[in-house]
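Let us begin with a simple case.
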Amino acid sequence: MSTPRHTRQSTEDRVEDLLRSMTPRERLSLLHQYQAPVERLGVREFRTGTEALHGLAWLGEATVFPQALGLAASWDPGLLRRVGSATATELLAVRRRDPAAGRNVWAPVVNPLRDPRWGRNEEGYSEDPWLTGTLAAAYARGLAGDGPRPRTAPTIKHFLGYNNETDRCTTSSDLPPRVLREYELPAHLPALQEGAAVAVMPSYNLVNGRPAHLSPLINRVLRRAAPDRILVVSDAHAPANLFGLQGFHPDGPTAYAHALRAGLDSFTQDDDRPETTLSYLREALDRGLIGQEDVDEAARNILSVRFRLGEFDPEPEGDEVPEEVVNCPEHRALAREAATRSLTLLRNEGLLPLRAASRIAVIGQLGDTVLEDWYSGTLPYAVTAREGLAEHCEVEFVEGTDRITLETGTGRVVVGADGGLRVEEGTGPEQSGQPEAEEKTASFDLFDWGGGAHALRSAATGLHVDEAPGDTLACTAPGPGTWEVRQTFRLDELPDGRFHLVQVHTGRPVTADGDGTLRLGGQGTAFRVGGLGSGARAAAEAAARADVAVVVAGDHPMVNGRETEDRADLELPARQEEVLEAVHGANPDTVLVLSSGYPYAVTWADEHVPAIVWSAHGGQEYGRALADVLLGAAEPAGRLTQTWYRSVDDLPDPLDYDIITAGGTYLYFGGDPLYPFGHGLGYTPVEYGRAEVTVSGGRVTVEVPVTNTGDRTAEEVVQVYTRQTASRVRQPSRALRGFTRLRIAAGRTETASVSFDVERLAVWDTIGDRFVVEEAPREVLVGRSALDVVATAPLDVPGEPIPARDALTAWSADRYDDASGVRLCPVSPEPGPDVPEDAVSEDAVPGDAVRARASGAWVAYRDVDLGGGATELRLRANAPRAATVRLRLDDPVTGEVAGEAVIPASGGVYDFTDVRTPVRGASGRRDLYVVFEDEGTAVAELVLGGS
């Protein structure tokens, strides 16, 4: 009998040998997240999916490093690699006591941070795709290790076009070819190309109208990018969406068959219950929707990763990892280093660094707590901002929350110290004389986490108000948390100054029953809230007593901006802003410390507060790291990896993924940001010299001397950007090409050297469907950020002109240069559209269709060579009812109408018809606009014929 232990064979041969020994049913059983053992062949059970985003998660106590966004702020791939390595080590140690801790880890997240309102912003690295790819590859390499056998099997997620939580399973992200090739794919591919990541997870959303789990790019791009087979795992419960929420296919067998053929290998569905998934796949086999070869190919991909992990090999001697490495001293030191290097100085008018002898008032909801996020490990310990500073200074702490009471009438207040919340006769807040313990049972600390979400904590017990059995409320939660957050409430103000208390998760108001019990539902009781503003007053009093006030503000990772919930704005929570302004009014020497997984529009603070420091939630060593930076024991080393905007008005629609036409991210944003991409200050001044640029052997090298003119060692991140100043299409205002970190002693000069391939300057040519280094003038920009440019130099590299579009060769409609009011959609439910022979030329590449969202929508094709004159326009089009499409020259509104096509009503969304119409007055090289006169009309391909 064959066994999987023929270690002298290649991995491919061993996989084939094992596969031949397995029955069809055994092969099929591999296609679920929970893979059953095949004991007769020595195949153990296997589970995909261990969370390891910034340390080992969901498996008990483990070293908790800063959030991914914070790690990225270090601009230090080597640091991320070491954090990844430590995380892998702890996973291997935990496996000693918990074999279910699988070695297929679901990290890193490589979605570029296009929109800072995204609820999962904290999980990503950067809005720049190259920087995202570089950092993700480093973290994945740390997880996998450098040996011939990977220590873990990293999984990049989430493929593709995923930056919104609102309706995430039903919204479609439009990615025109340039956005796909120049922005999205460069973030996803490096970890695969380098062999650091060996698995991919598709995203919940649709892309160009097709579920991401069915994307043809999985097989056509991702698998071709990797040096070995890769494993494609679904996101949790996503397969059922294909015929459920998304309704893309009519039933489970059909949907699962298409997913398997599109490249999905492992179905993460129904938790540890594979029966339904396997029954759908068996029925798909019986109906001929898939063949055994499709099952076998997925099984090969799965087994290939398991063999490479060494699952079927004897464990090498000395490879045992003791459990004592979990949270060992070395990992604690690494957590402190990572937290320190992530701290970013946004503003400093000379207040920082602080004197160690200062009397400091630490103020704020986050001043004496360290919070875990959904993908965090369990903190083994936590050093808060207060504790970190108290190791060096005299500290007074004031939380700054309002101590409130909820009254329903004179002397009737809500109490909740011992059991459920209820209304009882008591003493109002303006009265006195009640015992302190009794007063606390009727008092709650009000936390404002932004977006209207508040949490109430009992002053008597320290526990938060939570939903209890029978729709009642009780003070039982340690804080907001769990997958469905039920511990937050809105305070909806009424005209008479009273408030309705409304649970955020369900939208149900809080109502006092006849017996005084508080329940969710009903008409809602009007509460008079006593004590509003008390937190700001107490904070101001503490600030006035101190030399310096440190206000620690920000978000709760489980509230208002987290998985399943986007933010609606960029504002600091109103009551936290109120505390900040009161503190600054009492003591101008105020430092704002922001701890958050995303940017804030702190415009008031930027105008008034002399020092602002930001970090993502920093893990267990956050407080010590913060103290090191505030007191000057460490230089601020962090730099922003995404733009901080002044207002939500600076942002495109959250669902507008076409950053080129929408002007998104630092690449295309033309406004004045609050803090630009790459921004971060230091404590000592540095000066840049003249930049020298050389081009040789397909590489560009930029060198610039940097001098530390201060009196302490400088940490400088020298950033190199390029700008193309002429092109046939819109180009980024600047694009990051590389960076280097310099540590420069006082009075010394170091030379920064950054190199990159000339190919990095290529743009996606929508005419030729290829990357091209365009013949065009360029310049190099060297700076401290994307906008703080301190040295420039011309950049002359060989390029080629992009020819005009040949009007006589058919092209896919989605290969436009500009558009307004359209969306992209599939031409066929199959990944490869069925294209009629006479609709396009043999060389045409099938793409997506362009469908009008409203009347007047248009797409533009620049620089089209019409030769001596086009006489006919041919379209493949679709319309829900008879519709008109006009061809205009040079302008979508006022341009000359060269042709008008009438599109007949179609039988369905995939029923595309060939339409021909005469064209007049179209010759030479012109810009063509296809203008949709009717909503819902779609065009898949077009071509113009000559006379």
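The second case is a distinct protein. As before, the sequence precedes its structure tokens.
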Amino acid sequence: MKRFFLLLLFFASRFIAAGSSDDPAVFSTAKPWAYWWWPGSAVTEKGITHNLENFKKAGFGGLHIIPIYGAKGSESLFQNYLSPGWQAKFFFTLKEAKRLGLGIDMTMGTGWPLGGPSITEKEAAKKYQFKAGVFSTDLTGQKVKRAAPGGEGLVMDHFDMKAFAKYSHTFAPLLKKAHSPLRAIYNDSYEVYGGNYTPELFPAFQRLNGYDLRKHFDVLSKKKAESEEENQIFADYHRTISTLLQRNFVLPFDHWINSMGFTSRNQAHGSPGNLLDIYAAADIPEAEFFGSKPFDIPGYRVDPEYDSTTFGIPDIRALKLASSAANLTGKKLVSAETATWLGNHFKVSIAQVKPVLDQVFVGGVNHVFFHGATYSPPEIAWPGWLFYASTNFNPQSHFWEAMPALNKYIENVQTMLQANPTDSDALLYFPMEDVWHENNGSGKLHTLELHANSRVWLKNTSFGKWSELLQNKGFSVDYISDDLLTDLVLTPTKTFKTKSGGNYKVLLIPAAHYVSVETLELLAKWVKQGYPVYFLEHLPLHLNTNGATKEAKERWENARHALLMRVLSDPADQLARLGVSTESMSTKGLSFLRKKTPAGAAYFVTNLQSKFSEGSISLKKIAGNYEVWDPLTDTKSYGKKGSEAWLSLAPGQSVIIKSIAKIPSASLIAAAKITMEVAPHNLQVSVGSRVFDLSDFAYYTHLDTSIADSPSARYRFNLNLTADQIANAKVLHLTDLRDMAKVRINGKEIGMIWSLPFQLAIPSGTLQEQNQIEIEVISNSANRIRKMDQQGVVWKNFYEINFVDIRYKPFDASKWAIEDGGMKGKIYFTNR
């Protein structure tokens, strides 16, 4: 009955939302969006128009409004959150965004997590504790982080439906007046610290588990669980908390937003619940790519100051939790907070951004949100207003000039990704019960965070082991929870189908220790009916709850006995017999995401390692003609598949390979690759009014420290080529560039080099026997901010956290070493 009620509410809310939609076609979701922080909500109509017009020109599809703390000196412009003045600026933003064809999302509050002045102690986050062995409850005392003026206050109790009802009531008047292009209402990652209690806890626990938690305070007070029974009690507690979160916040959040006529967007990570179920409840599940990942790409840089011990290394499996939930429930969009803390302020190169995007795409994301783009008034001098935790994607960024090219690349890729469903063959069960049974102790709450904490619940687990192994062997796999298992539809051909149209050939259960009787009986039923369910390493070892009756225990043992013949130590042979496709390109270091298309299949393929440059690859879902499209350069080549396809893909590059009916070109085989190193002469570099003669390319920032803060330099040289060299010089390559470059040959603008590998196609007829080449190199702004801090220029003038570095220490660039800027090494040409 409960499930029927939730489904009824779900479809009713979808009907309301669909009926009140204005014009969803006014903006693009294929183009990237960005978090748009409003410091102090001190926005003006002039500033809003200036910001939005710049974002539009750079190729953004939309912005996500998040009011935060303000900048000192602008207090007279502060607008209290949701005040008449704030609402006037908000509706002006909607008007301008619609004029420009931009979409707008908004956080349901200011800063994060949800809370503010409407939350009293009754609705605020709560905790249990033991003082001198006596159980007591109290407020956590946590207030909204990074709150904007008028948004300050206590954090909401996310386990209390009445608390959310009161909180949401605050937004009803605004949303009733809101209109397109406002699209989605957003909830940030769950960062409620210490909240482990709600007044409904004990009665809910009794209903769900069949016994009274209050009789086990001796267990809850222990610093560490010491027995199987104690771990079971703690797991029952965690499961109850998860149920309360889902029932009293996650589902009401989605349903209420839909009832107001808008889309819900939710970050599940950090929650004390099964992330798959929380992602699945939102219209747009949102993952996160936080921090630096040391991609094995020649020339790729990782900020040595990034603390991977504390913040972890971004993992594709965390992204796939969100995309799997979307695939299983038919959600068209999967978003991701992207490039958060990619490197220290003023040091991030745009060449670091593209591999991050490619990793995000492989993880199943098709709706990128840059983190982020701070609103900055046009009259504020560089570096303008900035947010402390982001990579800067606003017009003050040193790589802003390359943003149109980056954004066009994203649009090209996301157009394909959004148009076609993901083609996964296998399902891998996520054993949430094992997480709840591990490392328990007093006050402990298992929050599934994406930073270093993910080692505990994701990476260093059986699920982590098998998900990585299957991924590395080229299997396309989606992850599934206990609740999502019950939505699967069995087909006569012994496959598992989803209501959204996905068709899976096998269900794999990693070495789970704890499984509920309901899940185990369901799996046993499927096995009895002949469906492909297999357990990796061993069968589940224990029933998951301390409250199980004798009958439940017997049922569990009977179900387990029925599964004895379904254990695999290595699933490869069985997967092959079931026709589960494996793409051998993964063993060559290539990463991919496979999509179903009307013509057959499409692959997004990216090279994020240095193992492959060119060679033959297998494409299991393409049977005939195919097209290879470079979404960065918009160039295409074609092939006719035999057993394998030929691919040229240098580290850092990516392509889309798709089935096509007919090849438009007779040329199927690329010429052999020819590399020609050339020797420039009369080499000079000019920085402002200074000109330096060089014998070889060298970083201009180290020629003279007095010019190190210059944002750019022009390298000029002459180049003599033979007729054969001209005929084969199709692509210009630079070996070492900091950080991007504009190329001019014989007075003609050729284009910009900004991504790895550093190369640029040369239009036919450009090169001559004698050539004048000019390469304007634009560097990052680290040296510029270094000089400003050395001179004591006041620019870090924000309230609250003000401005911190990548290790969350007060930002001070005055003692930084000079950053490399310019180009060094060699230049060469290739024929393709």
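The domain at 675-830 is CATH 2.60.120.260 (Jelly Rolls). The mean pLDDT is 94.
Keep these points in mind for the review questions at the end of the chapter.
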